[in-house]
Amino acid sequence: MSVYYKLILILVLVPVFVLAGTFGSKNLLHVQTASTLDPGRLDLRTNLRFYTKVAEYLGQNKPEDFSSYNLWVVQSNMLLTYGIMENFDITVMSRIYQDLNNPKKEYNSPEDIYIDLKVGSFGLSNNRFHVGFLGKVRIPTQGANYNYAFEPYTAGGFEYGLMGLFSFYNDPYLHDRSFSIHANLGWYNHNDAGKTLWEYPNRKIVAEGNATELQYGLGFAYPTELFNLNLELWGNSFISSPKPAEYIYSTDNYIYFTPSIKFKPRTWMSFDLGLDIRLSSVSKDFPLETLNLPMYPSWRMYMGLNFTLMPISGKGKAAGGKTVQSKVDFFESLLRERQRSRSIEEELRRLKREREQAEKELEELRQMLEEQGKK
Q1: What CATH number does the domain located at 3-316 have?
Q2: DSSP class of 349
């Protein structure tokens, strides 16, 4: 990727991040929650993730014109989520930039459009549990290149999937302020049959059949006043692997572990910082076997900015807004007053006991004086 293009991309995206006015759909970095946005709430989420490694030649027959170079794999996304009605929201995401590391084309920009429809926030057990479903599609864009290295498989088909969502909240009333657990399990179809994988002057290699996979995730979130501490385990397992495998970069299943932290300086804005760590092994290296490059990155740094753009329904501010925050502050003040009242009551009871003890001692002293007077 051109250094100048990277600089231009940063200069273009940073004003968008900063001026966008919080947080996108209700999910961790990779694992979705079973909760939806309130009707009328519009959220913006942006992220940038990258991986870098020094590419070196393996073996003894190193070409004279080869020199080690610094490989970069950069991806940037922007998405909007809108609460359409109770228990239903929609997310539209654009992949703004994707490194290809292909001699013919360095990057896709912009790339595909993703649309997620979530039905959720169905409460069970006094709202301590939430369940939901997520339907998603990936719409390819004209002129983009696919079957690229270091990323999950795609061949440019109209992809779609369905995922079940489950969430547990320790506090059934204030979900955003309590420890929570989230689980996802879904099916995904790459719809890639007949899509071009490689193209030679006199020959095309196309995908054989439709590759399908299971997608899964497990996430833990522990919120504090300023920070959310998150842990995620997520990955995929192919039901029918993409073929022919020798012409495809990403054919293995993968599992990643992602610790992350969310900084919440304002109720309408937050920052994400996470690290994807690959736990699974890879069965083969990068197709250019003479280079020390893996099929999937062993790590990826993840950064994100999140904003709440507007609540436009009659329900008032969205979750995290002034209305909810004022309610939380009100209940906390009640708790403080209650604790203060309890302290006062305990002090009054202590004084009452001391007074009764003093009266008892005075009565005993009076009786002793009367007995001495009779003598």
Answers
A1: 2.40.160.40
A2: H
